[in-house]
Amino acid sequence: MSDVIIYSVITIAALGTVSAMILFFVAQQFKVIENPKIDDVEEVLPGANCGGCGYAGCRNFAEAIVKTNTLEGMNCPPGGTKVMDNVASIMGMTAEVQAPLVAVMRCSGSKANAPAKVQYDGPETCFFAHNLSAAESGCPYGCLGLADCVRACKFDAMYMDEETGLPVIIEENCVACGACVEACPRDIIELRKVGPKSKRIFVSCINEEKGGVAKKHCSVACIGCWKCEKECKFDAITIENNLAYIDFNKCTLCRKCVVVCPTNAIHELNFKPRKPKPEKKTLENEVKTDAKVVVESEKTEGKPLAKIEDEATDNDNNKE
Amino acid sequence: MSLLKISGSPHVHGDNSVKGVMYGVLYAMIPAILASIYFFGLDSLKVMLVSVVACLLFEYLIQKYLIKGEVTITDGSALITGVLLAFNVPSNLPVFVIIVGAFVSIVIAKMSFGGLGKNIFNPALVGRVFLLMSFPVEMTSWPIPKPLFSGKVLDAITGPTPLGILKEGLDAGKSVSELSQQLPDYITELLGNHGGSLGEVSAIALLIGAAYLLFRKIITWHIPTSYLGSVIIFSGILWLINPELYINPLFHLVTGGMILGVFFMATDMVTTPMSPKGMIIFGLGAGIITMLIRIWGAYPEGVSFAILIMNAFVPLIDKGFKPKRFGERIKNG
Amino acid sequence: MKTFKRGGVHPEENKLSENQPIEVLSVPKRVTILLGQNLGANSKPVVNKRDKVKVGQLIAKGEAFISANLHSPVSGTVLKIDDVPDQVGHNKAAIVIDVDGDEWVEGIVRSSEIAKDIKLSKEEIVKKIQEMGVVGLGGAAFPTHIKLMVPEGKVPNVLIINGVECEPYLTADHRLMLEKGEELLIGISILMKGLGVSKAIIGIENNKADAIHLLKELANNFLGIEVQSLKVKYPQGGEKQLIKALINREVPSGKLPLDVGCVVSNVGTAFAVYEAVQKNKPLIERVVSVTGKSVKKPSNLLVRIGTPISDLIGKVEGLPEDTGKIIGGGPMMGKTLISMNAAVVKGTSGILVMRENESSRIAVKDCIRCAKCVSVCPMGLSPYLLAIYGEQERYEDAGLEDVMDCIECGSCHYICPSGRPLLDYLRVDKVRVGEIMRNR
User: Fold this and answer.
1) Which pLDDT tens digits describe chain B residue by residue (333 residues)?
2) H-helix or E-strand containing B179?
3) A218, A265 contact by CB (below 8 A)
4) Are C88 and C338 in contact, with CB atoms under 8 Å apart?
5) Span C401-415, mean pLDDT?
6) What's the mean per-residue pLDDT of chain C?
7) Which of A118, A128, A140 sits opposite C428 (nearest CB)?
């Protein structure tokens, strides 16, 4: 009986020793010496592996920081300044102050604004639909409404609005990782600065077609009429390929462009609602009244918009 | 006129549908159903009805109340499972045992994997094997067929299956030639007038159904051919070595669940490989395992186990045996 | 009966317009010529806004290696050179010409007299074909002159002419073979000379018995041209399948027919070559089948490139009430049109109007692993698996499973009992895998 015990003890001990030796040898042979800073940096990163920094995951980002030994161009969007400050203190540097960004949806081609002219019948993926043809409304730039961006979002910051058929960004959750920007085959979503008190003004359209054509697809398309550009005193608005774009570095959030836009393509976010002022026929007041009123009056006056519509009819003729 | 549609090509579709495929299999089982009713009387009808109704009910309940999704019991797949399960049990099985079998088949083997198309194992066979191990007595008391209109009114007489006779006899040290006195002749075995599960007894009826399946292109020739081929070769070699110890291949082909298993369960599209090469490997493996169990295993019958074991290998086979690509071989003419 | 071996399906043929002679469609009021009509780079415009152009005048030059010339199909004034929506609604650069009269450039022979003698030399033929902007009319619109410029080290020994027209509904090639048989054979002889081969085989499916009969008879007068009837099977018109069916050679993955010593050309292309070389006529018109079960008068129309599709529909007595889908091309590989304002391009082989009840796809169910897609895939792929990779965005895996070999024939989707959009996902795979490969 005791033999059995002795033999088994010896066998197990021998096995253990041999295994330990093998393990030790292998560990020595394949030892990877890594800078311990990588672990430290990784520790303070959010660990979401969202890819917003441009690296595959948090670990890769930490490696890149430690290896290049610089913070230039390195930013962790979901972590923001706080995390980057922590990283900087580990690295013994100071972080550049990065303005926080947030995703904005630059298309308002909802089911009502851009009624469907054809019906898409295929798999629920924007990427395929985009390669197949223009959107259901006929707009080759607009949102396809098949939620590639929503599926790409790892922070529950997006959902599809059933009524409009467009994705909605929940700003509180958005960490500006850029996954949705990447996912959108039409580059509709843009990362913009959050702005003071989250106030933002942007053109909610990326259609580069001529005014008449764009208007036919969608009632709230940017028609490239130059009105906002003329209105802007700060050169923040540029128009290229029949499309206005507001530079968020130059924009002072004066909201004047919002009112002059004949198609309501310029959106303002998180501003206090405007107070409708009593009727006074001064230019100043007219500017401040509700955008729609301005559009109406312009229509009746019929100067600039008439021109646009001329072009529209012209384009119609071209097509036939 | 409603809106024009836009979609990717192709814009036409063949007349295939899941329902069409499933009901095709069901039509193919009709001869065997009729044969079982003929041989086992209303008992078999009862078993089949209970099994089918239980399967449909379990699938309905799960889809309606657990998954809360679309109810697809009309697609015919649960119906097939029900009939196949009934085919695999004796006709005198108590009702509650059948219901347990249906529960295991549908709930455990099918729906818990995600429903039709996602199950790894053939549901009816899982149910059958579960019953075989849980209720060995009930599952192996085979009633002697009492054909309708034959006049003999014998009730509750049970007897062994031909495979059982062979196995027990060989284990007891008897030789094949001694045992063949007790075995039914091949014509009887082919027609089905011997003890066994409901659906497996009549090889002829099953073969008619199999011909229909092949004709409708619901199944392909690959699995049946390689399955039967490997059984014939395996048992043939042993038979040639010692015909007193090992019975001839023909006996193996027509007895037990061989025909039923080969044409109706080994060809179940969900649980078999996708490429022709893979199907042949599947058939070969199943054939060899069947013969191993029949000759050296503890059970007289091995078809169910063989198919289930090979089911488990399907993902591996699919990974290893891809269909042959076009244009790998260059000929110069 | 010869055919290709692996895979394939046999959809309902529905050749509704096969007995309708080719009709000439009147010149439209305005044409839109897309600059990117052919496979490869866009052509570069050589006219300006408000220029007057004549029929057959060069309006855009193919400057890149894989590119083709464009000629004005009408006479009139250039209205604009701008982006216009193409057949699927994406904006593409195009030249729009307002039609005024029908004045042709000098030098184009317009008589229908058959010119038999091939006077040009091998090099001159290639040059002429390039000059006249001839591209493959089977669908992909690959510039024909490039096929004739054989790179060093490759030796073609047989020319294969695709008269298969395996797509259901379409009959343009069928009618062309019946009505222009002799011209076609001269065109083939020219291609043979240009390519330097002494043998040509015309493959025709046996549902076009009249065309087979006629061409067999005519081919007796031509040296080295053989007519081969083929069993009806889709996608026999795919060049790899056709080569396999006719001469039993397999084009290796990622290679061209030239690698197995042959060049494939469509019958429509052969006719265009005849016109270009013998009649000095650029590729400015083509035969288009306008068809569909509810279409009142399914027809084969000879139309000028750039004609709005609405004109073609108008010719067949308008769009039927129950239209659910309009397809440019055949039902297996065609693209759905987003509007009828778009123009005919060189690759438009048909306009198919589907009924509403034929237009919807069947409800998508889970894969039941029936392996039908595997068995019908002419390229020996596993569409079910590739579609799963597409759905799960596993593009690397899809690349390893040779998704780039897919010829997008649609047989897998056609046969799938669960109605899974297999080809849609395979297309996603192909685009993504292409991106990955380019990034390497």
Assistant:
1) 578 899 998 999 998 899 999 999 999 999 999 988 888 888 889 999 999 999 999 999 999 999 888 888 888 999 999 999 999 999 889 999 999 999 999 999 999 998 888 999 999 999 999 999 999 888 888 887 776 665 554 555 677 788 888 888 888 888 888 887 777 777 777 777 777 888 887 888 999 999 999 999 899 999 999 999 999 999 999 999 988 888 888 888 888 788 999 999 999 999 999 999 999 999 999 999 999 999 888 888 889 999 999 999 999 999 999 888 887 654 443
2) helix B176-179
3) no
4) yes
5) 92
6) 91
7) A128
What is the full DSSP assignment across B243-296? TTTS--HHHHHHSTTHHHIIIIITT-GGGS-SSHHHHHHHHHHHHHHHHHHHHH
User: Could you give the CA distance from residue A26 to residue B202 in angstroms, rounded to a whole number?
Assistant: 63
* Cα(C86)–Cα(C84) distance, integer angstroms: 6
Rounded to the nearest integer, the mean pLDDT of chain A is 81
Domain C122-278: which CATH number of 3.40.1390.10, 3.40.50.170, 2.40.30.20, 3.40.50.11540? 3.40.50.11540
Is there a contact between A120 and B5 if contact means CB atoms under 8 Å apart? yes
> With an 8 Å Cβ cutoff, are C428 and A117 in contact?
no
Task: Write down the CATH number for the domain with range C26-99.
Answer: 2.40.50.100
DSSP B112: G
Q: What topology does CATH give the domain C285-357?
A: Ubiquitin-like (UB roll) (3.10.20)
DSSP H helical ranges for C137-180: 144-148, 172-179
Mean pLDDT, residues C100-108: 89
Nearest to B318 by CA among B264, B263, B279, B287: B279
Judge whether C353 and C396 are in contact, CB under 8 Å: no
Smallest Cβ–Cβ distance between A122 and the set B2, B3, B8 belongs to: B8
In the block, which residue shows the tokens 């070559």? C273
Contact: A133, B6; criterion CB under 8 Å:
yes
In the numeric block, the tokens 């054909």 are attached to B147
- Structure confidence at residue A277 (pLDDT): 53
Q: State the Cα–Cα distance between residues B58 and B130, nearest whole angstrom.
A: 17
Interchain contact, A118 vs B2, CB within 8 Å = no
pLDDT at residue A275 in the model: 67
Q: Cα–Cα distances in Å, from C371 out to A24, B269, B279? A: 50, 7, 10
Interface touch A128/B5, C-beta < 8 Å: no
Respond yes or no on whether the N-terminal peptide bond of residue C235 is cis (omega within 30° of 0): yes
- Contacts (Cβ under 8 Å, ≥6 apart) of A39: A62
3-class secondary-structure state, position A176 = coil
Nearest to A131 among C341, C359, C431 (CB): C431
Q: What is the mean pLDDT of residues A15-22?
A: 95
B chain contacts of residue C421, beta-carbon cutoff 8 Å: 8
- B-chain residues near A128 (CB < 8 A): 8
Contacts of A114 in chain B (CB under 8 A): none
Contacts of residue C322 in chain B, CB cutoff 8 Å?
1
Q: With H, G, I as helix, E, B as strand and everything else as coil, classify residue C102.
A: coil
Residue A319 C-alpha, separation from nearest chain C C-alpha, in angstroms:
6
Please give, rounded to a whole number of angstroms, the shortest distance from the CA of A127 to a CA of chain B: 13
Last residue of one domain, picked from the residues A65, A91, A117: A91
> What residue numbers bound the domain in which B239 lies?
161-320
Amino acid at B269: M
Nearest CA in chain C to B331: C249
Give yes or no: residues B294 and B210 share one domain: yes
Please tell me the predicted confidence (pLDDT) of residue C243: 94
Which domain, by its residues, includes A108? 102-194
Nearest chain A CA: its distance from B18 CA (Å) = 19
pLDDT in tens, C27-77: 999 999 999 888 888 999 999 999 999 999 999 998 888 899 999 999 999
